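Let's practice the habit of predicting before peeking. Look at the sequence and jot down your guess about where helices and strands might fall. Then scroll down.
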Amino acid sequence: MAEGKVRGDRTHHGARAGLRLLLSEWPLVVATAPPLVLLLGAAWGWWPSVGIEYVAFAVNVALLFAWGLFAGRAAGRTWDSALKIGTVDALLGLAVVVANAVIK
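Done guessing? Here is the structure:
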Protein backbone atom coordinates (compact mmCIF):
# COMPACT_ATOMS: atom_id res chain seq x y z
CA MET A 1 0.00 0.00 0.00
CA ALA A 2 1.41 3.38 -0.95
CA GLU A 3 2.35 5.81 1.77
CA GLY A 4 -0.52 8.11 2.67
CA LYS A 5 -3.14 6.07 0.84
CA VAL A 6 -5.95 4.85 3.02
CA ARG A 7 -8.77 2.56 2.06
CA GLY A 8 -11.81 4.62 1.18
CA ASP A 9 -9.91 7.65 -0.11
CA ARG A 10 -12.01 7.57 -3.26
CA THR A 11 -15.36 7.49 -1.49
CA HIS A 12 -17.54 10.48 -2.12
CA HIS A 13 -19.04 12.08 0.93
CA GLY A 14 -21.68 14.72 1.11
CA ALA A 15 -25.38 15.30 0.78
CA ARG A 16 -25.75 13.54 -2.56
CA ALA A 17 -24.01 10.39 -1.37
CA GLY A 18 -26.04 10.43 1.83
CA LEU A 19 -29.30 10.85 -0.06
CA ARG A 20 -28.35 8.10 -2.50
CA LEU A 21 -27.58 5.76 0.39
CA LEU A 22 -30.85 6.66 2.09
CA LEU A 23 -32.82 5.98 -1.09
CA SER A 24 -31.16 2.58 -1.49
CA GLU A 25 -32.33 1.68 2.02
CA TRP A 26 -35.93 2.88 1.55
CA PRO A 27 -37.55 -0.24 3.09
CA LEU A 28 -35.81 0.48 6.39
CA VAL A 29 -36.88 4.11 6.24
CA VAL A 30 -40.50 3.14 5.54
CA ALA A 31 -40.43 0.57 8.35
CA THR A 32 -39.55 3.27 10.86
CA ALA A 33 -42.37 5.61 9.79
CA PRO A 34 -45.34 4.20 11.81
CA PRO A 35 -43.61 4.10 15.21
CA LEU A 36 -41.94 7.43 14.48
CA VAL A 37 -45.31 9.04 13.76
CA LEU A 38 -46.79 7.50 16.91
CA LEU A 39 -43.95 8.67 19.14
CA LEU A 40 -43.70 12.14 17.61
CA GLY A 41 -47.48 12.55 17.77
CA ALA A 42 -47.39 11.79 21.48
CA ALA A 43 -44.46 14.18 21.97
CA TRP A 44 -46.32 16.95 20.15
CA GLY A 45 -49.48 16.40 22.20
CA TRP A 46 -51.68 14.90 19.50
CA TRP A 47 -52.61 12.13 21.97
CA PRO A 48 -51.62 11.16 25.49
CA SER A 49 -48.02 10.00 25.81
CA VAL A 50 -48.71 7.66 28.72
CA GLY A 51 -48.17 4.11 27.48
CA ILE A 52 -47.43 5.14 23.88
CA GLU A 53 -44.38 2.88 23.80
CA TYR A 54 -46.68 -0.13 24.27
CA VAL A 55 -48.86 1.04 21.40
CA ALA A 56 -45.79 1.51 19.19
CA PHE A 57 -44.58 -1.96 20.18
CA ALA A 58 -47.94 -3.53 19.31
CA VAL A 59 -48.00 -1.70 15.97
CA ASN A 60 -44.51 -2.98 15.16
CA VAL A 61 -45.48 -6.58 15.97
CA ALA A 62 -48.62 -6.26 13.85
CA LEU A 63 -46.57 -4.84 10.97
CA LEU A 64 -44.07 -7.71 11.20
CA PHE A 65 -46.97 -10.14 10.97
CA ALA A 66 -48.56 -8.29 8.04
CA TRP A 67 -45.29 -7.98 6.10
CA GLY A 68 -44.59 -11.69 6.62
CA LEU A 69 -48.11 -12.55 5.48
CA PHE A 70 -47.90 -10.37 2.37
CA ALA A 71 -44.39 -11.58 1.53
CA GLY A 72 -45.57 -15.17 1.81
CA ARG A 73 -48.53 -14.52 -0.47
CA ALA A 74 -46.34 -12.61 -2.94
CA ALA A 75 -44.01 -15.62 -3.04
CA GLY A 76 -46.94 -17.81 -4.06
CA ARG A 77 -47.48 -19.54 -0.73
CA THR A 78 -50.92 -20.73 0.37
CA TRP A 79 -52.84 -18.68 2.92
CA ASP A 80 -52.05 -21.23 5.61
CA SER A 81 -48.34 -21.10 4.86
CA ALA A 82 -48.35 -17.30 4.61
CA LEU A 83 -50.11 -17.03 8.00
CA LYS A 84 -47.42 -19.24 9.52
CA ILE A 85 -44.70 -17.08 7.99
CA GLY A 86 -46.31 -13.92 9.37
CA THR A 87 -46.67 -15.51 12.80
CA VAL A 88 -43.03 -16.57 12.85
CA ASP A 89 -41.95 -13.07 11.78
CA ALA A 90 -43.96 -11.54 14.62
CA LEU A 91 -42.56 -14.06 17.11
CA LEU A 92 -39.02 -13.33 15.95
CA GLY A 93 -39.65 -9.64 16.57
CA LEU A 94 -40.87 -10.45 20.07
CA ALA A 95 -37.81 -12.66 20.65
CA VAL A 96 -35.51 -9.79 19.70
CA VAL A 97 -37.24 -7.51 22.21
CA VAL A 98 -37.05 -10.13 24.97
CA ALA A 99 -33.40 -10.85 24.21
CA ASN A 100 -32.63 -7.14 24.32
CA ALA A 101 -34.39 -6.80 27.68
CA VAL A 102 -32.50 -9.78 29.11
CA ILE A 103 -29.16 -8.45 27.87
CA LYS A 104 -29.71 -5.05 29.44
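How did you do? The chain has four helices and no strands.
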